[in-house]
Task: structure prediction
Amino acid sequence: MANINIEINGNVVKAKIGEMLISVTDREGISVPRFCYHKKLSVVASCRMCLVDVEGIPKPQPACSTPINEGMKIYTNNQKSKASQKAVMEFLLINHPLDCPICDQGGECELQDVAMSYGSDISHFAEGKRTVADSDISALIYTDMTRCIHCTRCVRFGSEIGGIMEMGGTGRGEDLKIETFLRESITSELSGNMIDICPVGALTSKPFRYELRAWQMSAIANVARHDLVGSNIFTQTYKTKVKRIVAKDNDSINETWISDRDRFSYEGLAHENRLLKPQIKINGKWEEVQWDEALEFSIRGLVNSTFNMSDGSKLGAFASNTATLEEFYLLQKILREIGSENVDYRLNVRDLDNVIDLESNIKLTGLDGIDYALVVGSNLRLEQPMINHRLRKAVLAGASIDVINAMAFDFNYRLNSENIVSPNQILLLLAEILKSVLESSYAEIPKYLSKVKVGDIAKCMADDLLDADNSVIILGEHIINNLQAASIAKLISKIAVQTNSTTLNISATSNSIAAAMVNFIPGQGGLNANAMLEADLRSYILLDVYPQYDFHNSAQAIKTLSKENTFVISMNSFKDKDVTQYSDVMLPIASFYETSGSHVNIEGVIQSFVAASNGPGESKPAWKVLKVLADLLKLPGFGYINSAQITNDISNHRYKQKVDNKEINITIKRGVSVIWQKSPYAIDVLTRHASALHATKIGLMHRASMNKATAINENIKAGDKYLGVPVVITESVSNNCIFVNTNQLTGSKL
Amino acid sequence: MISRIRKLVKDFSLGELRGGMRITAKELFNKKITVQFPEERIPISSRFRGLHALRRYPNGEERCIACKLCEAACPANAITIESKIREDGSRRTTQYDIDLFKCIFCGFCEEACPVDAIVETQIFDYVFLDSRKGSIMTKDRLLEVGDNNEREIDKAKEQDAKYR
Result:
């Protein structure tokens, strides 16, 4: 668009034609008051607070909906604009209660600030003020709708960003109410953002209610580690405790939004279950000891149990995928220095010889611009809310999306087609797509595809992939334990190459990419997670692992770790029954936001963060503990004094996991597949301890879904329990599939 | 020479002493201005800023709503407040401490308070018996001061009301 010159308050300013006036003033740092305008939402110009004087137009114009034009002369602070802003402010305040002292927004309230700088000292309004009854809309958001000034930011957020119009305006004029239609009906995974965008105290955070004022806390920029995006956040701390999390703008990562999981998981930090002191087990009894004693004990145990330090191969290490890049690096470095290749973070994978090997080669911002996406095996909205948000943006801009899933999920945008396919048939469908693509481009058909017959559905998807200029194939979490996971990944990369598509592998979440980056997988001669549990190792180091939840085969894991002659060092941030049972040493480590480190997101961007607070009790950041352990073991090359030095040591290189090079074999497996997925609010130890999240609809999700045919085959009735999870019979699940979605704080028991 | 003789006479006739005794004799019959504290007290302005108190409403409910404006206004950082939702859903403090060693008795807290909960009474003769700990007025102690001096506080506030 053409550049033009306009004049604001007598200064010439460059701008693009057609831009709204308020975006120009924002860019130039000229303050224009506003309530309904939000840079990421549509313009409604309903609050009239941003009225400014435009030369040549008799009435003041709202800056948010006035497109600029060459030679325009605007005055944001002359008599006319000031008078109109003052008048609007007085109108907005006639029904607003003056309860700032008990309002949680007080101190960070846009209305308060604007009233102070643009409003009048007195009001001409002496009549009674309107009051609005509140309803309980969510476990996360507290409402006080009497304070609402009807800016409709939350309404627009619901329809434009959240994808479900959960809040709406009912009534007119004086009776206009912003409300939900039902109680507790806010179910969006992004709902917490409404708290951020509400300019008044109508929507406030429930877990944070009445605790602190904004000015009492210090905001520290941080990175959320619950998903593959690494949303930028501010951790707000008070007396060295994280008290609240709000979004930090970063257009290339999370824009202005963060998911509820990132926003409310901090509650877990203050949970009573935190591990506070180092403990060692002497003759079967736990004793609280000082750090040095616990570390000495650990070293002695390691040396004794692994016979001597020259044969380290009897030592194994597991880490949770929420660890930081530095922690992964130090732990694998210790193991490799000792001479062990037994490191792994892929604890939830059933068959580590059948793993997904697929590169992600699309930027997050690139997702906005795609015109076709094929999603395979993912409930995107709940698994990766920010990636889903970007796809939604693409859909609104005209992209079409096809989904291949084992069960029908709620997508908050229109899908081109939703294909519910039994997990064992997914490979076949992808083979059909590949064959169709190859046929369309007159390429040679490889032997393994010769028997595949292309169906109509596959043909459609193949054509869409070929037609699209910017397409992406997304491989999701549900494939990770698919019997043909490796082949599925291979087919997808072949399809991607043939159709010139990009790929996005979101099958492993949290900080898994960091683990892959520092080679936290067994190398030559090393044992992988499952092999380690079967092998007769003498000692284990566990980094924030809770076997009951984290391991695919939790029973086996607990059994192996509990063996008489194994020495187990557990570095944990929370107490856990099983950990207490099998460990020999428990070292308390700092949890999320209490340690410095880095997160690596799906693009491979390393985002480093600092510790926002100290760990509770005597807990220490895990990287420090690992460094001291290495020093005590007299290993060379651990002379780090801060985590940034460790980060510098790490080269930005993605190691490949061991993948078999076997030719793809398109066979149809028989039998019922079980997809076991933890609810998004039970994915890691911190979210499992965040109580408010568990009271939401998403947090309460706890069901084993299957269709009637599968239920009859398996001899299960509705209301039964499948592996402890209540059974729901629904036809939205594909045949021969049991989809377990559990918030039960236990792992899979398959 | 003459002044020397004059001084000699004055010194030997105890002139200075007589002058002093004259004043003493005069004051012996004058009205006394010494106040026998603590039995006697001089009147204190209603705006006097002494020991703090937390007030209650007539129905016994504490006034303080944990808005933390006093904490923010305090130039000496003498006030510490922790708040939480009370069982009935109202916003209340769980801790309200004023450190009297830090307090400079400026009265900003009283001015900042939107519900007239924290006030400075006319009490100035208090003592800390157990040193550092005693200097911290906890919520209970502040409410107690308020309860014990309810009438005086009300009277002082009433006198000052028309000027506020």
About this structure: Chain B has seven helices and five strands. Chain B touches chain A at residues 65-69, 71-72, 83-85, 91, 114-115 (CB under 8 Å). The CA atoms of residues 156 and 162 of chain B lie 11 Å apart.
